[in-house]
């Protein structure tokens, strides 16, 4: 009869030892933080025929975006700037652009890797300082579009690669018709709140 209580104890002990492990919580990467501030840093390439030798410009930007988790699309507003300086044929060129924009935005999925896209209207201003020579500036409305792939380690911090294009700008600088259309590649550091 002592065998039955011993076997019962062994059976209960083995059941306790086979408990399922406590699951490790996954980081919350949902769109539970609909507001996002993003910092951009990268390179912008303007048309070489219009802007050489200052067509490859360093660029920075600041963007605010809002996307509600249950909405079809969100929206974004932002500011971008770029600059470059160089010399050619004894002439010094110093070029700056400033751009404000607003449009729609959509982030796809709720996984760690999330593609996104945006498009809208932009107002870009270009300033050209030439030495020796005249300085000039002009502004133009244009269309922009961008897309990227963001890595969300948490719902607060993300890092993305962003490809952006500006189309349809029309400027007059130094008596010549030029455009400020560009292609841009940037790293984006985002913070959700």
SSE map:
Layout lengths: L2 H15 L17 E12 L1 H4 L4 E11 L7 E15 L2 E17 L5 E19 L4 E17 L4 E11 L3 E3 L2 E3 L3 E11 L1
Antiparallel strand pairs: 1-2, 1-10, 2-3, 3-4, 4-5, 5-6, 6-7, 7-10, 8-9
Strand order of the largest sheet: 1-2-3-4-5-6-7-10
Structural class by helix and strand composition: mainly beta
In the residues, how many domains can be counted?
1
Secondary structure: number of strands? 10
CATH topology name: Porin
Q: What is the rounded distance between the termini? A: 67 Å
- The top-level CATH class is Mainly Beta
Commentary on this structure:
With 193 residues, the chain is mostly beta strands. The protein has a single domain (3-192), classed as Beta Barrel (Porin). 10% of the residues lie in helices and 62% in strands. The protein is built from two helices and ten strands. It has helices at 3-17, 48-51, and strands at residues 35-46, 56-66, 74-88, 91-107, 113-131, 136-152, 157-167, 171-173, 176-178, 182-192. Strands 1-2-3-4-5-6-7-10 form an eight-stranded antiparallel beta barrel. The longest helix has 15 residues, at 3-17. The radius of gyration is 27 Å and the shape is elongated. The mean pLDDT is 88.
């Amino acid at each position: 009869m002592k065998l039955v209580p011993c076997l019962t104890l062994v059976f209960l002990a083995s059941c306790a030892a086979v408990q399922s492990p406590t699951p490790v919580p996954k980081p919350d990467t949902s769109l539970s933080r609909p507001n996002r501030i993003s910092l951009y840093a990268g390179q912008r390439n303007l048309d070489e025929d219009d802007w050489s030798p200052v067509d490859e410009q360093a660029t920075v930007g600041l963007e605010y975006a809002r996307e509600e988790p249950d909405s079809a699309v969100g929206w974004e507003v932002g500011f971008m700037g770029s600059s470059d300086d160089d010399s050619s044929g004894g002439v010094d060129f110093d070029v700056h652009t400033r751009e404000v924009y607003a449009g729609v935005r959509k982030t796809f999925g709720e996984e760690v890797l999330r593609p996104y896209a945006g498009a809208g209207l932009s107002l870009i201003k270009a300033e050209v300082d030439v030495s020796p020579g005249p300085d000039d500036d002009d502004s133009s409305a244009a269309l922009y579009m961008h897309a990227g792939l963001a890595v969300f380690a948490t719902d607060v911090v993300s890092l993305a690669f962003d490809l952006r294009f500006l189309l349809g700008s029309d400027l007059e600088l130094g008596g010549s018709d030029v455009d400020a259309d560009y292609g841009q590649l940037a790293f984006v550091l985002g913070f959700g709140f």
